[in-house]
Amino acid sequence: MEHLFFSPTEQAMAIESNAAFLAEVHDRDWSASLASNQDLMPHIAPTTPWLGFDHQRERDKEWIPIQRDLNQYPVVRGWTILQAWDRGDLRKAHPSLRDPTLSPCDVGERVASMIQSWLYFGLIEAIVGDWVDVSYLARPDSSGRMLLYSRNLVYLMYAWLRRLQELTAESRAIALHNAHANLMTVATCIQKLLAWSDPGTAEEQWTRSNFPGYIERIYEVTPAVIRLTDAIGATRDRIAGESGIRVFAIAGLAEAYLDRNARLRARGWCPFLIACCLHDMNDSVIDWLDAAQRANPTGRHDECTHAACTANNVDVARYQMQHCTADCTCHPIRPNVDDVIRAIENDTIPTVRLTKTASGIKLQTEATCRADDEFVVFSHVWADGLGSTAEKGIYECQALRLAEIAEEAKPGCPWWIDSLMVPERSPYRYMAIRKLRDVYTNATKVVVIDKSLSQVRNDDTAEIVLWSIVSSSWAQRLWTFQESFLPTYIDILFKDGLRSFEPAALPRSLLPPVIQVVWRILYDRVGALRPNRAQQLTRRTNLGEILAAMNWRTTSRRSDETLAAAALLDFDPWSLPEDEQDSEGRMERLLLLVSDLPDDIIFFTCPKLRRKPFRWAPATLMARSPTMVDISHDHQRAKCTAEGLLTRQRFLEFADSQMGQDGLQYWFRDPETLEIYGVYWDPETKNNPGMFNAVVVRPIEDDQYVQPEMNQVVEGVALFLGAEGGDLGEDVSQAAYIGRVTIFQGDENDVPEGTAFIMTSWKTEMLCIT
Ligand SMILES: [Zn+2]
Ligand SMILES: [Zn+2]
Fold this sequence. Notes:
- By secondary structure, the chain is of the alpha+beta class.
- The protein folds into four domains: 2-251, no CATH class; 332-535, no CATH class; 543-640, no CATH class; 645-769, no CATH class.
- It is 34% helix and 17% strand.
- The strands form seven sheets. Strands 14, 15, 16, 17, 18, 19, 22, 23 and 24 form a nine-stranded mixed beta sheet that branches. Strands 10-8-11-12-13 form a five-stranded mixed beta sheet, sandwiched between helices. A two-stranded parallel sheet has the order 1-2.
- The longest helix is centred in the N-terminal third of the chain and has 27 residues, at 169-195.
- It starts with 9 loop residues before the first helix and ends with a strand.
- Bound molecules: zinc ion (ZN) (2 copies).
- One zinc ion binds at residues 270, 272, 301, 304, 309, 311-312.
- One zinc ion (ZN) binds at residues 270, 272, 301, 304, 309, 311-312.
- It comes from Capronia epimyces CBS 606.96.
- This is Heterokaryon incompatibility domain-containing protein.
C-alpha cells in the first residue's frame, strides 16, 4: 500500500510519469537501487506476498495481447476458472492441475497465484492498455522475498489520466465504460470468492477440506486488489466527473480484515466506528489508518461492540457532568431559568453572558430576537461531559472555558449552549427543540468542541485532520448533523486554537492528485457535513442526503430522528404526529411531507415500515444500510403519495409468479435475447417469504441501470406486479414490495441440470409500489 503514502518530488513525478506515459511495457529493475542502497521507500506493512504466477508467460515467444476485457485474462492463458468456481473444484480450473501427483495444497496455491495475478496485474493492464510487468509493482524485501510494491502506481495512474484526457469525448466515454466494466468484473470475482470462503457455509467447509491453505491465501492477496480498484476508481472518477457513472467502492472479503481490525481496536479505535467505516468507506482508508499506526487519542472504547458505541451513547439517567480537569471541585452554575423560559415563550433565542463580580461569576440571560443580533453557539457531544439542562446548569470551570472560547470566536457576543438554554420541564423542552433550526441557522458562529478534535493540531497532515473529524464522536451523533449543516460559519476547536470549518479552508493532501484516494474520500465525507452551493441559501437538504448523513449516526432518543430530519428539511416539527411512541406514523408523515425521494430509495437496505403502502420505506433513518441511495438533487424523482411510491423503474418481469424463499435460486430466460438470469433469495436479507413476479434493478443515471452483464451479480428488489389497488391510470402499474434479492446473468453451465426456465423480459415502466 506504498501508494497511499508515497509523495515523490516534483522532479521525480515529472520524469517518471512522462516515462510511464510513453512506455508500452512498464517494468523496473530494482537491483541497482537496492545494491547502491539508494534511498528507496521501504515496503509498508502489512505487506502482500507475490505468489509468483507466470504473468508474463513467454511474452518474447508467444504474443499474448493485452486483454482489455478482464474476463479474458484467464481464458487466453488456458484457465476455465469461472466454471471451476461454480462447482468449487479447483482442479478443473486448468489442465495442468489435473495432474494427480499435485497435492491439494499445491492446487490451491496455484489457483490463488493465478487469481492474484489476474485481479492485480490483469486489472491494471486492462485499464491502462499496456503491459505491466511484475517488476513494476513488486520488488524483493531485504530477505529476498518478493512482495507487492505499489509505489509506482502513482505514475501509471498519471499516464492513464493523461491518455484519457487526450482522447476524443467519444473514445474517452468508451474507455471509462471499459474501466467500469472491469471493476465490476473484480466485484463479481470477489463475490465468487466469498461464495466459496464464507465462514460457516458448506462451500467453505468443502473448500477447506479439499484445498487446505487456499482460503488463507485468498484472504492474503485480495486486500491489495481492493486497494488497486480504489486507486483506479478514484482516478476514473476524476475524469468521469458529474456526468459518468460513479464507481461504487468494492468491498473485500470480511474475513481478510480480521487481523487489521483487531490491530485498530488495540490502538483504541471503537469497533462501531470500524464497522461504520467498513460499510461506508473504501478499504483503502481503513488500510491507511492501520498502516499509519495511528492510535485513537482519546481511547475509552473498550466496552463498545461493532453494533453500538457505548462510550458515545450516554445513559441519560446515570449521566455525570465532568470538570475541565480531573482535580477540579467547583460547583455548577446556571442561568435564571425563568428568564430562559420567558425568552422561549416569546419565540426568541435565549443566550447568556458570563460576568465576573467580587462574589464570583454569574450567567446573565439575554433574549436574542432580531436577525442581526450576534451570538455564538456551541456544538458538542454529551459524552464529553458537558451535557445538562437549564435547571441543573454546568460546572463553573466549564462555563469559564466556554466564555473564553466564545470570546475568541466572536469578541463581545453572548452565547448559547443546549446544556444551559434547553429546560428540562415540559412543554419548554419541546418548544426549545423546535427552535433548534433557528438557533443554528441564525448563529453568528458555531463552535465545535469535541475531546478527540481538541487533540488535533492545525499543522497535522490533511489526511489526519480530516480523519479526526470523520472519526470524532461529534460526527457520529444524530443532532450534530444539523449543527454542522445549518450554520453560516463554523469553527472547530483544535489543540492549538480555532480552525474554520469550510470546505475551502480544509487542508489539501500533499500526495500527487491522481493517488489521493484517502484524502478524496475523507474530504468528500467532511465536505458533506456542510451545505453545498445549491443548499447555501435555503439550508435545505433532500432525503437522499439525510439518509447518507444519518445512516451511521446514533442518538439516545429514537423519536428524535424524525424531529432532526424535519429541521433539516425545513418542516415544522409540529406537523409530525405528537405521540413519540408512534415511530411508524411519524416516519410515514415525514415521507409524505418530503414527497420527493431518491430514485433508488427501495434499494436502501434497512428495516422497512410494516403498513401498506409504505412497505418499501425505511423504518429508521439511522439504518446502518450497507448500500447508499442517490443524493443528487436531480435524482429525487420518486414521489411518496398516499397511494404508494410513484417511481419509474427497470425490471425483469416473469411469465409466472414465484414463491420467494430464503436460500432458493430461480432461473429465467429471455426468449428473444436468450439471456439467462438467476435470482437468489439470500437468507441474510431477512425477507419474509412472498410471491413475486418482477425484479427491479438499481437506477443510476437517466436511462442507465445496474443491469447484470455476463457473469455479474447485482442487487435487485422483488416485487409483485398487479397487486390490487385503486385506479392509477393506464401508465402506472401497481406493485407490492416483497424484498431484496440478487440477480445474476449466466449461461447454461450455471444452471443445474433439469431446471425448467421461467420466461422473462426487461421492461421500464412507471410503478406505484406499496
Ligand atoms: Zn465506542
Ligand atoms: Zn470544575
